[in-house]
Amino acid sequence: MSHQRKHNTGYILRICGIAALGGILFGYDTAVISGVIDALKTYFDLSSI
């Protein structure tokens, strides 16, 4: 029983780590994109629709 519980705990921690990393990467990507939007508008002479 102890071996099964240890296996489940490791699996859960791995899944949580992957989900946390995905959230961090999503937040980073969002920050980069929102920081570049104004420069892209100016460079390509874009306007709001």
What percentage of residues falls in helices of 4 or more residues? over 70%
Structural class: mainly alpha
Mean pLDDT: 89
Terminal-residue CA separation:
62 Å
> How many distinct beta strands?
0
Largest sheet: none
CA radius of gyration? 21 Å
Number of helical elements: 1
Low-pLDDT windows of residues: none
What's the overall geometry? rod-shaped
Order of helices and strands: H
Percent in strands: under 5%
Q: Summarize this, please?
A:
The protein has 49 residues and is an all-alpha fold. Helix content is 88%, strand content 0%. It is rod-shaped, with a radius of gyration of 21 Å.
Description:
The chain is mostly helical. It has one helix at residues 2-44.
List the defining traits of the structure above.
mainly alpha; single chain; 49 residues; rod-shaped
Task: Reconstruct the topology from this structure.
Blueprint lengths: L1 H43 L5
